[in-house]
Amino acid sequence: MPAHPTLERTPSRVAPGWGEAPPSLLWSLTSAWATDCKMNCRSEVLEVSVEGRQVEEAMLAVLHTVLLHRSTGKFHYKKEGTYSIGTVGTQDVDCDFIDFTYVRVSSEELDRALRKVVGEFRDALRNSGGDGLGQMSLEFYQKKKSRWPFSDECIPWEVWTVKVHVVALATEQERQICREKVGEKLCEKIINIVEVMNRHEYLPKMPTQSEVDNVFDTGLRDVQPYLYKISFQITDALGSSVTTTMRRLIKDTLAL
Amino acid sequence: METDLNSQDRKDLDKFIKFFALKTVQVIVQARLGEKICTRSSSSPTGSDWFNLAIKDIPEVTHEAKKALAGQLPAVGRSMCVEISLKTSEGDSMELEIWCLEMNEKCDKEIKVSYAVYNRLSLLLKSLLAITRVTPAYRLSRKQGHEYVILYRIYFGDVQLNGLGEGFQTVRVGTVGTPVGTITLSCAYRINLAFMSTRHFERTPPIMGIIIDHFVDRPYPSSSPMHPCNYRTTGEDTGVTCPSVEDSQEVCATSFSTSPPSQCVLTATKALSQTPAPVVTDTLRVPTAGLAFSHQLSSSRLPYQPAALGAGSADLAHPVVFAAGLNATHPHQLMVPGKEGGVPLGPSQPAHGAQADQERLATYTPSDGAHCAATPSSSEDAETVSNGSEGRASPHDVLETIFVRKVGAFVNKPINQVTLTSLDIPFAMFAPKTLELEDADPMVNPPDSPETTSPLQGSLHSDGSSGGSSGHTQDDFVMIDFKPAFSKDDILPMDLGTFYREFQNPPQLSSLSLDIGAQSMAEDLDSLPEKLAAHEKNVREFDAFVETLQ
């Protein structure tokens, strides 16, 4: 399976019962969960209530919209430190279960990567049998080289968290109303996302050729998003799985 | 003060702003075309994609935008505005959105033009791409084509928000600070359209829900003409994109279908967006499509070719789009001028001759007897018919714009005809249509057959057509007597042909035979309370029924 470089490094599923977290994840998690300053990391939280079959499309809509804003064309470095940027194409995607259309970057690789992780999230939600609460996090980070034996540090600078609440509907009429309502809600979310994007807050500065892999994900063929990782967790109403994971992480660290 | 900005930067900035304005217009208009947009990413820079985004340039739109800008750039007090409005087939229009690209005085001296401003403009365009899919007008524009079209207008100067009705909302797409000012892109959109959402456009006729304040007279004379949001690639006329307002010539390129009564067929006409000429509304008598016609034969659509109108038959091969979804539940609803198959009066022979072709009778498609010439875009049968009829079409000098349904061979049941009355309410087309009296229905009392010049037709006219439609006394109609092959009609009263004719069509729905032609809408409304009272009596039954559905 041609793994997307970012995701390969990141099982990043902090739901209980999953495997050990790799050290880089540990670092990034602790840095993300640092109580006060998250190292200039801004965090945005969105919440949606959807029906089971709408989970996938709703998540894809949000993630793609964020990544649309956080992707550029491929850089081509020339001498003297200048570079030119490729072109990013876009395409409209109609949702089947929601009255909604979103715009995504025209990159099949990126779409596949997102669909994969969203599919896993949807399955985890379905199998959890809990209240149908879960969340996905899209985190943009920068890599900072560390000396051996420590691996590179991942410093997030922006985290988008989408909390999902799955509802079950009984009648077809309710589902129809849900289609439209969720469509309208997603419109609001897109407006929120755009608002945040346009604050023009911190963005990593454009890297030199040697540093580009610390800032951007250069593994895709046609576009170049900022380095990102996606994780998800299935939560109880009180978020109790979070504590379980913390415990596990500490255990893992000690086991190192 | 622009002294800090060197001349190269200033030039660059002006160029960026100019192209940003042009690209903004492209994105907005393309988002309202009614189609999904898809462009490709390219890893190698082409050098021609502004802001590193693949945004196609529609030449007409660029031309309009440049015309509006007239060499100027958005500046303080001079905003570039793109107005998106909706226009129905009856000429009512309504502003939906106004997108404004404004400049204010707040400067950001620190920012680097060639790098940060450019990238931020690129980000703003991406945001615009996302936001244009999110406003209510997007979903409307995706469904345009049949009853309404979306138009755009670009103007420069002061923003005029009056046409948006009360309570319009604004969304800010974003801002970019530059050394000469801050560029702001925002959208003000009408929201009370939400009550007449796309749902309503499709399903429910707003009997009472027509919100009059939608149709405000334009307070400002349009300084620039409205343009339709449509863009046909060369040679392509999908019929899905809205037909251009300006360039439709024919009054109606109707289409015809033999679908069963429950499915009222509408055809998209190129002339749809034209304001209905009085000619059309007064004289057009368009029968509800296929209401009484079965589709036991292959139900191809015969797009009507008004060859006799003088428009060359070659031009009229417009693919036909049926708004089937519109009328699945409301067969009365949407009869728009020229949507139904009809044939011009007077010159009846052309299609007549086509139908007269006996070999084709067995597979003849429009059993309702629409003697339409068919365009090649329909099924094979229609094609042969078309070829046949085209051959016989004789250009006639006398063109009448009365289109009536011809009595067909198989028609025996009364067909209700719909008269397109011009209701005096906006969005009249959504109001339930009135039906004509049966007596006036030429289907029931077919008119006399006119003088025939077609040799074939003459040969078919039998004296005393067996069974069949009788009373061919009116001028406008031609009776084709159907003689099924190998059947004799002189022995039994009920022969194959008669049997076929008798049972060709399912019985008329009682609701369609109601004589409510004389009622106006006001009377309809008046009778509502009684109907409601009657329904209320049966409320329990309805509730029980609804329970069973859940």
UniProtKB/TrEMBL annotation, chain A:
Tree of life domain: Eukaryota
Protein name from the UniProt record: Autophagy related 101
Automatic annotation (TrEMBL), chain B:
Official protein name in the record: Autophagy related 13
Species of origin: Ovis aries
